[in-house]
Amino acid sequence: MKQSTASTAQVPVGKPVHFLHPLTVIIIGVSAWVAALSISWPLLHAAIIALGWLAGITGSRSLAVPATSIALSIPAGLSMLLVHAPHGEHQIAPLLTSDGLVTAGELALRFCALMTAPLAAMANVHIPDLLKALQHLGLHHSVVYVLGASLQLLPQASALISEVATANRLAGRKVTLTTVIPHMIIPVITRLLTRGADRGIALQGMGYDAPGRRTVLYPVRAHRWEILLRLIFPAAAIGLVVLAWI
């Protein structure tokens, strides 16, 4: 039976979808980060968080961006609470002031916005497309490879940790404080080094260290209207910063 074209165009559930060019996404994320860093408007920070969480959920099809930003912001928020809450002018309890609580809350919100902006941007960037775009801009291929390997190190390490943990569980080995180094850390590091060596052999076979300029067979295309986005968001961030500082 002939399969319809509509069914082949459907995106599998849970698969990340990236609509924008990776450089466009990074420019938007950097603009939001600069605005959050330079402007002390709680409403702006809340808007960046809300839009960033929405973009992160849409791009990754998961709650990873909100969960990670909250997890990173809780320790910072507690430290800001300890620093600012006792040192306000309007005391409401021992070692607790109302204006100190407001200051701590605003700083915690700002920190969360600073974490959300890059996380949401990376959730909407396909790493291979980003590397191709950077190489297409003229960045040296060795720098592109190092950048790609660095960006993929944490996901690969996380997957290896899961594999080693599963192997230990199947073998009936319990990982404790005294056995975590030989049963978890050393196997993960060994696998990472082995995979790195295997990639080095493959790269050498493909002429990675050969002289000459590399070309991109299928460059990542950007829509024409994305050029406007690359201008509008930095201009808006700069305009808000100037407005806040006037």
UniProtKB/TrEMBL annotation:
It is found in: Membrane. Keywords: Membrane, Transmembrane, Transmembrane helix. The chain crosses the membrane at residues 25-51, 227-245. It comes from Corynebacterium propinquum. The lineage of its organism: Bacteria, Bacillati, Actinomycetota, Actinomycetes, Mycobacteriales. One of its GO terms (cellular component) is plasma membrane. InterPro entries: ABC/ECF_trnsptr_transmembrane. Coiled coil: none annotated. This is Energy-coupling factor transporter transmembrane component T. It is a multi-pass membrane protein. CDD domains: EcfT.
